[in-house]
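Annotated sample (chain length 42).
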Amino acid sequence: MILYHDSKPTLSIPNHKELAPGLLKGQIRKSGITIEEFLEAK
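Output written by the structure step:
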């Protein structure tokens, strides 16, 4: 899955039931939010 947004980085998310912790952290970091912000939003 590829997520596009005009003012944010493009993210390529694998379509799996689970993501490796390092991959998830990297995608969160690339999105421009903190891990804490991600956890609050879930």
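Annotation: Residues 2-41 form one domain.
Annotation: The chain has two helices and two strands.
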